[in-house]
User: Fold this.
Amino acid sequence: MKRIDLRLFTITTAAAVMFSLSLSAQAQDASSLFKSKCAGCHGADGTGSAMGKKMGAHDFTTADVQGMTDAQLTDIITNGKNKMPKYGSLPPDQIKGLVAYIRTLKK
Ligand code: HEC
Assistant:
């Protein structure tokens, strides 16, 4: 009986640890993805690098961008727009994560 209790405890604990690890990995993924792929033009804080602004990128912290729907942001990231490159080759989950990350940059 004791043996079974212990095994159950181990399994439950392992599952809980794995679950919380995957949650934090997802949040971190989006911010590191943004820093590696997007910050060059949009700046780490989303306000836009000098080069990005020259190309026509808008400040992510403003109502202009935050007022766009998730569908609009997803569309621009997936298909690009003018000088914004398209990132449709990223898995949909990662694009969704990037949209959620952009929402956290709101002023
Ligand atoms: C080479 C520079 C460049 C890179 C890299 C880049 N973007 Fe952009 N992005 C732009 C430009 C320029 C625009 C403005 C397009 C327009 O409206 O003409 C833009 C527009 C956007 C918009 C719409 C809001 C706005 O500023 O007009 C979103 C959302 C966006 N980019 C997300 C991303 C994400 C997420 C990544 C990384 C996966 C990324 N961008 C990488 C240049 C870039």
Observations:
- Residues 28-104 form a domain with the Cytochrome Bc1 Complex; Chain D, domain 2 fold (CATH 1.10.760.10).
- The helical segments are 2-42, 50-55, 63-66, 70-79, 92-104.
